[in-house]
Amino acid sequence: MQLLDGKSLSQTIKEELKTEVDAIRQAAGKIPHLAAVLVGDDPASQVYVRNKVRSCEEVGFRSSLIRRPATISQEELLEVVETLNDDPDVDGFIVQLPLPAHLDEDAINLAISPQKDVDGFTPVNIGRMTLGLEAYLPATPNGIMVLLERYGIETSGKEVVVLGRSNIVGTPMTILLSRKRQPGNATVTLCHSRTRDLAAHCRRADILIAAIGIPEMVTADMVKEGAVIIDVGINRVDDSSRKRGYRLAGDVDFESVKAKASAITPVPGGVGPMTIVSLMMNTLKASQAK
Ligand SMILES: Nc1nc(=O)c2c([nH]1)NC[C@@H]1CN(c3ccc(C(=O)N[C@@H](CCC(=O)O)C(=O)O)cc3)C=[N+]21
Hints:
Belongs to the tetrahydrofolate dehydrogenase/cyclohydrolase family. The structure is a single chain. By secondary structure, the chain is an alpha/beta fold. It is globular. The protein folds into 2 domains: 28-113, Rossmann fold (3-Layer(aba) Sandwich); 139-272, Rossmann fold, CATH 3.40.50.720. The model has no long low-confidence stretch (mean pLDDT 97). α1 runs parallel beside α10, α2 crosses α10 and α6 packs across α7. The protein has helices at residues 6-26, 43-59, 74-86, 105-111, 123-131, 139-150, 170-178, 198-203, 254-257, 271-288, and strands at 2-3, 33-39, 62-68, 92-95, 159-163, 187-191, 207-210, 228-231, 235-238, 246-249, 263-264. It binds 5,10-Methenyltetrahydrofolate.
């Protein structure tokens, strides 16, 4: 069984990015600048955003963290977005999700300029991706594509089963994997809460991608011998034996599944760090687009 070490691969890619940024600086070019908007104080969101800001520092990007209270109004948040759209110093920005329930996530997303949408969540970028045009690709699915590519995992002609149909992971994942290019050319099945006999679909998968948000839902009996397992889940599970009071669990029961898998991502240290590196790659691209 091969461990697909996203953490170490992300370090390698960050070093490559740093070399590029250093060259840009030598040439007196513009250093990439990523801004992140964090509304409220959801603990998981704070961790993710902190990781993004730290990664920016590691590769020599500029970063700005814009924090607003959970009580911010829709109009005030739209103003923050407009300010970032208009700020020539900011190459790209993200609005960390989820937002507090009184805010309209779709309306905020639609207000983000596609040229600065380094998350790849706006209609223009999703449409361009779907058409196979140059686009900012969504960070988690693209991070998975980079992971598969760098580990030399063949996707062409393979049966890929994706669990979960979210706008930011499951749905774009199916588009990238079925594209007529490498990596891609896979036969993709998208499963969700209404899928009948989920386990039977999973057992057919050469590559199984779990993005459902249910801790350890994928068990060994659902996995084909030799399958490649990509675990997108990052679930906090109560654990009184830990100092923090919780542990991180994926959507896959790692301990039982690893015996059957030919390759598997751990949680943490798998898809999460690849998501961040993919955001960095988009930000570098944004800074060079002008
Ligand atoms: N606008 C927006 N863009 C996103 O890209 C976005 C988002 N909203 N909302 C939430 C999801 C989730 N996400 C993660 C990023 C890093 C880790 C990460 O660094 N994970 C570490 C550990 C994290 C921990 O210790 O809790 C790891 O897996 O090794 C995880 C998850 C980005 N997302």
